[in-house]
Amino acid sequence: MLTDMKDILSRSRATVVEDTVGVVTLFGLLVVCLHVFGTA
Q1: pLDDT in tens, 4-37
Q2: 3-class SS string, the chain
Q3: Is residue 16 within 8 Å of residue 9, measured between CB atoms?
Q4: CA-atom Rg of the chain in angstroms
Q5: 31 backbone dihedrals φ, ψ, rounded to 5°
């Protein structure tokens, strides 16, 4: 199973990086929006 996961990650490394950047960006936007509208 560990070998399968390593194989999948090695084949789709660009997609994993893009997904990670997207998740971090969405989380950052959530924090910013909550901060802005929470203090309005």
Answers
A1: 988 888 888 889 899 999 999 999 999 999 999 8
A2: CHHHHHHHHHHCHHHHHHHHHHHHHHHHHHHHHHHHHHCC
A3: yes
A4: 16
A5: -65, -45
